[in-house]
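chain below, 165 aa
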Amino acid sequence: MRLIMTLFSAFIVICLSCACSLEANDHYRGQVISVQDGDTITVRTEDFEQLRVRFYGIDCPEKKQAYGDEAKNYLYGLVYGKTVDLEVVDIDRYSRYVAIVRLGDVIINVVMVREGYAWLYEAYCKEPNLCNLITQAENEAKSQNKGLWQDTSPLEPWNYRRGNR
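prediction:
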């Protein structure tokens, strides 16, 4: 019985160490192997781990919303098959790694907003420097009527989700 308990304890320790190997405030590099929507991708790291990544500080239209497909397609064109750098800020309730995503020196989170495919997600954007960049990008997209800002009153995804629950 003691041997079984020892083996079980070792198994639990191994499982917990594997589950906790990726944490907030970590940095990763990997290839984008899938684009789920305008703010969620899957990245295969250099260690061949697959990370589901939610873009920090932004929110894109849902798939059934106006500009949802456009946001996904635009992001796909930007990053699919390319190597990105991830700065993990948090892990969300769906176990996705919430991250600042960079392609070289370009912060893709900001690009998605600047091109009119996402909003600043103010409720979850707490990094002042990045949030200021995203705010400036949103103001620029609005002033130029880019993407979803062509619509006279675009519906924020968080309000869309609230209405569809």
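The longest strand covers residues 27-37. The domain at 22-163 is CATH 2.40.50.90 (OB fold (Dihydrolipoamide Acetyltransferase, E2P)).
thats it, cya
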